[in-house]
Task: structure prediction
Amino acid sequence: MPNPLLESNELPPFSTIRPEHVEPALNQVLAHNRQEIQALTESLTAPTWDNFIAVLEQLNDHLSKIWSPVKHMNAVVNTEELRAVYNQCLPELSEYFTELGQDETLFQGYRALKASAGYASLSIAQRTAIDHALRDFTLSGIALHSEDKKRFGQIKKRLSELTSKFAENVLDATQAWTKHILSVDQLAGIPDTVLANFAQLAQDQGLEGYLITLDAPSYLPVMTYVEDRELREEVYHAFSTRASECGPNAGKWDNGPIMHEILSLRQQLAKLVGMPNYADYSLATKMAQTSAQVIEFLEDLASKSYPSAQREFNELKVFAEQELDIVDLQAWDIHFASEKLQQAKYQLSQEALRPYFPIDKVITGMFAIAGRLFNIEVEAITGFDTWHEDVRFYRITRAGCTIAKFYLDPFARANKRSGAWMDECRVKRVTENGLQLPVAYLVCNFTPPTTDTPSLLTHTEVTTLFHEFGHGLHHMLTKIEFADVSGINGVAWDAVELPSQFMENWCWQKETLELISSHYQTGETLPAPLFDKLLAAKNFQSSMHMVRQLEFALFDFRLHREYVDAETTDIQALLEQVRQQVAVAIPPSTNRFQHGFTHIFSGGYAAGYYSYKWAEVLSADAFSLFEENGIFDKTTGEKFLIEILEKGGSEEAMTLFKNFRGREPKVDALLRHCGIIS
Result:
């Protein structure tokens, strides 16, 4: 039987990939790559781009084509069998990449190429790729003696297992809890569209009535609309204690010991290569120069935002007591009371907006906006191979030529990781057969359609879709044809959120809302009175949201900067200390937010969660140029395309930003957009 993962297809053959295909395919490719690398290093005398780096790039791309669909399917159609083989393969992959990072002959090849006369004649993108590789060799322990190199490899392998296990525990704990409700009275306050979804969830399980889960399209409406305070409290506790020693499934998927082991190993890794802590190790590939600079940046934003956040929270407490008879405002009341306050102040609810944002209209309008900004067209492709029937597939063209493709998997479902993200399916690069076009995965977890209602998005979900599409555009509109700095590759992590947060701005403009809104029953675009309310409410509790994000960022960064060991460092105590410093709403002592903080324990944001705020400064400042010149100004759009989207990681992020904006970034636009300063 042929192995579909080993077939040289333009795109992954998702429908034919089975768990039993994964390990044989990976082993074959790893063995082939090792053999080719050995032959390359044995024969190498005068390395050039073509005889050295292009060969390595081809081998890496071959491996990526095997692993990308496996990694993706593990996140979006997770099964026990796939998970088992995925976890079995992680140590093998980790070992392979550690070998590459510590291969002395490869390192000398890069050094020789940099020192050669040919280096100066290479493009900026090629020189950046070489410089990044030399930096990464250092971070991979190339200078270590053999015992320390071995230890470095063991740590990397173990970390790959632990970070995967952390995410699995969160997924399992999320899936394990449900609340079956027979009486609709208990769900008083829930909008009809959400109620229909709860009924559908119950029906799918062969149950009468309604089913609540901990997935976002279920959890958030309960917190926001359900009038039954005891039910809100029950659901809040189930959600906020996931994968911990507390709550309804206490200890079953406890991430506590895993967090300590991950943090301990990360500190060991940093110290092996001469860094004082993992925070400093993390910054070696980022825009921010020092850990002190990051702390100062976050604390400065906190000091500017905290007084306003405190005023917002006090207003909420007074409103809850006077209007809702909630004297002791608790964590499970905040969304509910905030929604009521927002309605009282602005006569606006996310649910009132939902009918105006059927997903198909939002998607079509989003494509039209990108078309006007970046001179592209997006069209749907039918008859493609997929991992699930919900998935859509699109082609991006310019002047009739295809330049990229992407998958969109929009809806929440069982066995799918929560959240929203963009990932790479294919990277743009020159191959011996011509140009390989970039292909992206865009994944969200929106409320799916029911039998009689299309999927309707809240305005918050609309901004999520634009955010992920921004990441996708960064990956897909690149002009760079060398994999290591093409698209999102090689981009400093604290700049990678720039295009995504930048695209969110078009969700707030009258001109663009006419393109993305259309009432699913009447076809009416968002009426002017609703738009005015939306705009008036844009910065509702924005300071509270700001300090919440700063809480996460400071906790993450300090944790990776200060962690010692399980006996010395109390993770919960550190989080509470950060909360006392910047938070205005302190959750109950049973809250175990950190046990589900996948961004830093299983994603790429370890000692890097601050990147969201760092990049938000960049994106707000970048958008301010459109505010000055017009939101569809062709010259400004083309400049953003050329200097930011097309150049990928080929030049330093600060250089590219200054090329676009004409100066270094300023924080003022962000504070103004958030309503913190006028």
Remarks:
- DSSP finds 26 helices and nine strands in the chain.
- The first strand starts at residue 178 and ends at 181.
- The domain at 4-168 is CATH 1.10.1370.40 (Neurolysin; domain 3).
